[in-house]
Amino acid sequence: MRPIVTLLPALSAALMLGGCISFAAAPPPSLLTLTPDSPLATGQTSSSATAATILIQLPSVPASLASARVPVQTTPTEIAYVKEAIWSEPPARLFARLLADTIGSQTGRVVLTPAQSMLDPGARLGGELRSFGLDAATGDAVVTYDATLIRGGSTTFEKRRFEAREPVGTVTPQSTGQAINRAANRVAGEVATWVGK
What we know:
- With 197 residues, the chain is an alpha/beta fold.
- 30% of the residues lie in helices and 29% in strands.
- It contains four helices and seven strands; from the N terminus they run αβββαβαβββα.
- The relative contact order is 0.19.
C-alpha cells in the first residue's frame, strides 16, 4: 500500500497543473480576413428572370496556399511564412467569396450556388489562385489568379491571368492582411469587368 499512498500527492499535483499547461501552439492575437470594396447592398433583390447568372467555383491552390498561413516567397525556390499571420478561413474560400460579392455588386449578375447552377446553366468562373502572399524581393503583397470563364450558352473556355501588387511596408500581420486585401480587391474588380454584364 505504501507506493500507492506516495503517488497520490504527486498525481493530484499533476492534475492541478494540467489546467495551466498547454501543449498546443498559442492562438494568434487576431485572424485575417478579406473585406470587399464593393459589397452587396443589404436588402437588394436580384432575380435570374431578369439578370444573367454565374457560378463562381472554389479556385484550386498550390500546397503553399492550402493552409491558413501567409506565405512569403523568399527566393525563387524557397517559401517562409509571416509570423502570427493566420487567415480566418483557407485563402481559396476567402477569395471566392470576395469574387462573388464583387461580381454580384458590380455586374448585377446573380451569383449561384453549385446546386442552383444545375437548374440555370449560366456562366461559370473557375481557375487557380497562384499567389496570395508576400514577395520578399519587392516587399509587395501579390495576388495572382488564373481565371477560366465559360460564358452562358457557350461551350468554349476563355482564360486570363490577373495579378495585383500592393506595397506592405513593415511586415506585420496587420500590414500584410491590409495589403493582400487591397491586391485581392483589385483583382476581383478586374475579373468583374472581364466577366461583364
